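Reader question, answered in our methods column.
A reader sent in the components of a multi-part assembly and asked whether the whole thing could be modeled at once rather than chain by chain. We filled in our standard form and ran it. Here is what they sent:
COMPLEX SIZE: two components
ENTRIES:
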Amino acid sequence: MKNKSTLLALILAAAASTNSVWADEKPFSIAIHGGAGTITKAKLTPQQQQAYRDKLTEAVNAGYKVLEKGGDSVVAIQAAINVMENSPLFNAGVGAVYTYDGAHEMDASIMDGKTMNAGAVSGVKHIKNPINLADAVMNQSPHVMLSGAGAEEFALTQGFTLVPANHFDTESRYKQLQDAKVKLRKAESELKAKSPDYQASLNGVPQIDYLDLDYKFGTVGAVALDKKGNLAAGTSTGGMTAKRFGRIGDSPVIGAGTYAENGVCAVSATGHGEYFIRYHVAGDICAKVKYQQKSIIQAADEVINQRLITAGGTGGVIAIDQRGNIATPFNTEGMYRATRKNGEPADVMIWRGR
Amino acid sequence: MKNKSTLLALILAAAASTNSVWADEKPFSIAIHGGAGTITKAKLTPQQQQAYRDKLTEAVNAGYKVLEKGGDSVVAIQAAINVMENSPLFNAGVGAVYTYDGAHEMDASIMDGKTMNAGAVSGVKHIKNPINLADAVMNQSPHVMLSGAGAEEFALTQGFTLVPANHFDTESRYKQLQDAKVKLRKAESELKAKSPDYQASLNGVPQIDYLDLDYKFGTVGAVALDKKGNLAAGTSTGGMTAKRFGRIGDSPVIGAGTYAENGVCAVSATGHGEYFIRYHVAGDICAKVKYQQKSIIQAADEVINQRLITAGGTGGVIAIDQRGNIATPFNTEGMYRATRKNGEPADVMIWRGR
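And here is the structure of the entire assembly that came back:
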């Protein structure tokens, strides 16, 4: 009898708890990433690890708070991304990497799954929070994608304050640029020695493909499902260290680095952007969910851990579906990331085993 | 008896003819477009109609010739696109429209279905044939997408000769810009009169959405299947008349304006680019073919004539599948286009009824 009544009490308690989360409130959740790469445990001191975990927690909670109050997913993802853009730990906003010529050229995009509206900026140099400018492009212009000085002219019409380029100067990123240039020169010399013809055809084009993976990563992003059932995705980046020629990566490309469609899924990517554009990764994951009825876990896994690996593309994504399920696959050693579902604490991870 | 032997002779002749086309030679075909829009019959004089039909015939034949000789589909589509880029009839290359500030900013992209490699340029001002620069980005750089002055710096490293900006000046396009500006000012005044708040929020941003459709169109593109079974797609454009703020349309966006994947399909789009980016049109058509086993005709029709119409997006695509089947749906009054399959003459069309 005692056992039976205990069981009953447990069942009632479970039902009450389920009720408070699932019946009174619609599910909502958020996932964020701060870049994927060859993040080995040996590379990070315990202090650095903690700094990343703290900032990821702060970012995911900033977005979660918006969702909890009933706010829109497009607002929540910006709140989360802003925290990372304002931290030098990530390759976005203040921590943006240097271009070959010693500048900072940032890309960002955002998509609202409810309206299928989207906004993107590429190559902006004086915008503190590029994700917010992408949002202004989405809501205040008839365009989806604005670039370079033109995007900053648009920013001025929208009341944005431009910041000086040195706002984005950090010593660690500057050192990365110097390291990258040394490696690029070495790679070029080796190529030249091996094959003068090949070198002639390259004609001084830096082969960033020969750089370590870590020079390509650090992009930040967020995806969220709000209580109204609306999905959103956003991505912000400084791009590749030592990039040249006005290179645009996947982050501002809708369907590649960012995609959101209500009823299907929302995705934000980080990795070797050229592969994410060619395999239109964000759009392909959602197409598998939509047309093949695959789960978000399976769809994201197939693209990141099968298709991209076969192609040689490294990186990862965060993805969320209409029920708030989250997938965070990556084919690199680590990916800075955090998730938080309604009523649960934040889950912060760097490696496969947390 | 006589009937029987006649029948036999017919069967043998048919077999011989089928044999020469289908057994000795692999199927190959090409499709091109020169833009979609409100092309009413009243708008074109018989002479203008003929000029378009002649140039489309020249372009499709230029590509066909490459395929017939066993050349690569990526070469064939460039041959076809170059003809249109070198004609003032189309909004690409020499006929590129004017930006709001009186410049020409051209976008182009190309994708090789065999390697899934891709190249794109945006906002170039001094490149005679932007599709060829996109090809150089694909083959001679580690990047997929280069923009603005950086893309032209890359062009110089590859031996391209820059042409002066006035190479792209044409009187008819200049008149279009003046017309567009008058209409934009009128639309802005009307908005201001209706709602001062709304105008304040726009803060002088020209609402190109209020322009006639024809200011948005004229992009050129080509898709092809070569004898080796390789698919390719390419797109080249001057963008929208009176565009501002470094606006990038769908043409240089892989997965939106251009996409090619062997075994699946190749697509080039033309239309109101913002919608083609948001609905990642080229990638979505191929996803329907790949994941839902839909025919190229059905997949392209569903996206252009159902999904885009519901969304309010106008334009069209040319699409080709692995067997050389071609679809050319558009939801506007007309789309300049031509197709040619192996052993057949060119088929040149402007409206639904040719």
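What stands out: The longest helix of chain B spans residues 171-194. Residues 27-169+211-349 of chain B form a domain with the Glutamine Phosphoribosylpyrophosphate, subunit 1, domain 1 fold (CATH 3.60.20.30).
Send us your own complexes using the same form.
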